[in-house]
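Researcher: Structure for this, please.
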Amino acid sequence: MTRFRALLLVGALFVLGGLNYSIFSKENIRKNGELVYVDLAPRDPRSMMQGDYMALRFRLAQEIEQSLHAEKPMDGEKRLADVTLDGRRVASLAKPGAPAQVRVQYRIRKGAVWLGTNAFFFEEGSDQRYALARYGEFRVDRESGEAVLVGLRDAALKPL
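Model: Predicted structure, token format:
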């Protein structure tokens, strides 16, 4: 029985260590990551089970999907996309052969490109405020390309 408890304790420490590393990594990206804005097209802002949220689609994800053409990446596969930024730091997929200013990691989920997240949760009753959202504010890790959504912005890039 003590061997079982020891294995259980080691397993729990392993899981908690992995969880804390993931949290630390995301917080580091949030603080030190490259600022990038991505155009978005919000969808249904309600969920009966989860509370108020906004389902998100990103123009950059659509551009990446179109660039894949007939290529069929495997579900769960991670890749990097070369991205350019305009004067306001709004992201677009870099044209083939053009230098990238930032590389953004994306994942394939159910045949679609997924950038960091596909939903933004907000306090119940504040859906009118977030209806003005036009951009997702991301912080991108320069080394890995991992993107973390840190907020939403209006058409003038003002925080919501």
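Researcher: Any notable elements?
Model: The beta strands are 34-39, 46-47, 51-55, 78-85, 91-93, 102-109, 112-114, 119-121, 135-140, 147-153. The chain has a mean pLDDT of 86.
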